[in-house]
Structure formats: structure tokens, C-alpha cells
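Operator note (shift B, R.M.): manual run for Major facilitator superfamily (MFS) profile domain-containing protein requested after the automated queue skipped it. Running by hand, logging everything below so the morning shift can see what happened. Input copied straight from the record, untouched. If output looks odd, do not overwrite the archive copy; leave it for review.
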Amino acid sequence: MAGGGDMGLSNGKKYPGKLTRKVLVTCIVAAMGGLIFGYDIGISGGVTSMAPFLEKFFPAVYRKQARDAGTNQYCKFNSQTLTMFTSSLYLAALLSSFVASAVTRKYGRKPSMLSGGILFLIGSAFNGAAVNVAMLIVGRIFLGLGIGFANQSVPLYLSETAPYKYRGALNIGFQMSITIGILAANVLNFLFAKIEGGWGWRLSLGGAAVPALIFIAGSACLPDTPNSLIERGNHEQAKEQLKKIRGVDSVDREFNDLVAASEVSGKVDNPWANLLQRKYRPQLTFAVLIPFFQQLTGMNVIMFYAPVLFKTLGFGDDAALMSAVITGIVNCVATLASIVSVDRLGRRFLFLEGGTQMFLCQVATTVLIALKFGTSGNSVDLPKWYAGLVVFFICVYVAGFAWSWGPLGWLVPSEIFPLEIRSAAQSINVSVNMLFTFFIAQIFLAMLCGLKFGLFIFFAFWMVVMSIVIKLFLPETKGIPIEEMAGVWKTHWFWKRYVAEDENTTPNGGMV
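Run finished. Output pasted below as returned.
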């Protein structure tokens, strides 16, 4: 498959190259880092809906659930201890992302990926063997440390390795792995919940070791990226690696641009301070806004708590877990659609279409829940057709996220940063993502109890806000080589006032 030679850039540069088997396999292996993140998202919601798990670790929630079987559907799972079990991971991931930034910049992407797999493996051992809540929390912290390293390094690795024409599709492999991990977790939760004796939750939690081992083995076999090798002074090795992944010998133009970017990067003593410079204002803005908005779609809370949510809405135990499996399948299929379309339709189109789709589904879900439960939360079992309608709209909502804000939330931030601030900026992206994942996960059940069906209106409101921001302020980035991305901001109606025409002056002639 030819690549890299037929798309004109604002500066006229075109890099030769093909989508080689080596780069395809390399990106697929690297993207396996998403398995650990996805598995955790899926598994945590499943085990918190298993009665034996609740009875052992969260007996107050278990008793409340049993006592309020027919009433107060909105509040039956509301427990800060229970949500801390789920959300503590994301606080740990936030903190580890800053350490991972230094490791990724100084030692390369590969060591950071290996560290993430090993830390996640340790966490799976703690959780699978847990005998009290303290062990669960310690395990979750190790899992979070692993996810912080993986989410810092994998999107960068993919964006730096992929030919620019196919960068979107290959980078979305990370999100595809996340969705596969979620689906695998949902299926395993459904199967393990049926084990007699009530110890299936141990297999669910301990099973996190499997994606961790896959990620460790894959990371150990990967070469580092040419960008990272150049950044650490290994120019000859970087050039040979670039030839291998591009499938051509004529890589001088791209290689020289990478070297030039590295020389600029080498002059930066403190990339964190550099982020605050005026010329990086657009990138910093989207490093914060995109992960912030991604969490306010409400998708992660649905995936965390899908079984709990369906159970709260009146589904039985098996039906709740099966509904989570169905949404997991939709998630995977829709992510494939994003892989196929992202480099053809562009980032902006998918952001806006997905946002509209999610907004409409949130409104529909609000109406259905309001009609059935009202504000009191009292209800008999849902009729099958009504339950099916709820699942249908949630599935359409999941599909909208899976081909827009899900993968693009990782793709766009990883491709817009220049090399000199890339590791630091990606750390900002990951830390903001984890901070708001923690925040939303921690308050979701309390919000459901307090806002009732209005919770979905809350997320729908934010879909409107984020779609307006994308429409007005995000330029299209498809088909632009990663080291030439600065040019898209210089022609944008708003950002051109911040981005210097050269390294020292603004468009108005002032100093940066």
C-alpha cells in the first residue's frame, strides 16, 4: 500500500514511504497497551455488581441493595468507599504520568511501556489475592501506576512510528485495544459470576495479569521510535530504523526534519516551563480541553458502571452483565469504523458527528428513565421491550463515542505537539484525563442519586459545549506530518495571533 506521497502540505513537503508490514505489526503490538486500560475499565464495573464481592468487601452496600430491591433505584449503590475502589486507580495514574514523562523523554518510549506492564502485573496480583479493602486499594494503585506509564508512552509511540497518511488509523489501534479489553472483561465477568461458591470475582480481578503479560512481552520486542533515538543522540540507529519502518531508503528529508526538531528540543532545559510560552498556547489548550471534555461525555462512567447502571435501572444480575457485553461489542465494532474513516473524513468531522449522536441519545435516555422512574426512583421490573429500548439508545451512544471522542481523545493530543515539549505535553494530557476520570468516577453514583435522570442532561449539556469548541477552535490535522504540525495553527483564524511567524516574533511583530 503506497503512502506518504500524494497529500500536499502547507509547506509543500512530502515524505516518501509505504505502510510496511513491519510498521503495521509494530503499531499493533504497541497498541496492546490499551488492553490493560480497557480490561480495568470493564472489570471494575462488573465485580462491583457481583453480590459475593459486595458482601465480602462492601457489606453496607450489599445490605442496602438487598433491602432496597424494589425502591430507590437511583441511590442503591451510592457508597464513597465503593467508588474509591474504582477511582483510586485514576489518581495513581495521574501522579505516575509525571514520572512517566521524564522516563519517556530521557530513556525512550519502550522502557516506559515496559514499566507500565510490570506495575500493572503487580496490581493484578494484589487484587486477585485481596482479603480486605486495603489490599484492593493497594492493588488499584499499582494498576493505576501502570496505566499512567502506558497511556503516556503508547500514543506517542504510535504517532511517531506511523506514516503521516495513516497516523490516525494506526494510532486508533490504541483505542481499539481499549475496547477489546473492555469487551473481554465484560464477557469474563458474565462467565465468572456464574461460578458456584461466589469466588469468580477473584478470577476477574486476577485476570488482569493476562493483558499485562501480553503488553510486557510485546513491549520487550519493540524497537524505539526514530524520534526518541534521535532525541537521545543515536542518529545512525534512528536513520536505519526510519528506513525499516518506511520501507524505502530515501528518508533523508524526513530524517533531517527529525534531527532539526531534536536540535530545537535539545535547547530546552525545562519542557514544563516551555509549555507556558505563547507560541504553544493552542497545543496546551487542547492538551487540557480534549481530555477534560472526553470525560464529560459520560462514557467512562457508563463503561465503569455499565452492569451497576443496568442493574440500577431494573435489570437482573445476569441481564445487567449481558447488557454490558452487548455495549462492549458495539464499542469494538464502532472503533473499527473510526479506524477506517479517520484519515478520510478527518478528525473534525468525527468529533462533530459523534458529539451530535451522543447528545441525541442522552436526551432519549433521559426521557426513558424519567418516564419509568420519575424523581422518586421507585419502579417495578422493566418490561423487556422497554429495557431493550434503553439498551438500544445506550448502544447508539456508545457507538458515537467509539468512533469520535474515544479514539480522537488520544490521537489528536499525541499528534499536535512539537518534539521539544511532546513528553511533557502528553503528560498533561494523561494527567488531566486521569484527574477528571477520577473525579467523575468518584462522584458518579452520588450524582445519580442526587440528579436522578437529570444526570444524563448534565452530560448532554457538555456535549453541546464541546462540539462548539471543536467547531470553532480545532483545525483539521489529518495528513500532516507530525513534525510539520505547527503550520496548522499559523493559518487558523484564532490561533494565528498566538503562534509566531518565526521562533521569535508573533504575527503582530511583538516578542513571544
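Quick read of the result: The domain at 21-224+268-498 is CATH 1.20.1250.20 (Growth Hormone; Chain: A;). Confidence is low (pLDDT under 50) at residues 1-12, 502-512.
Leaving this for review. - R.M.
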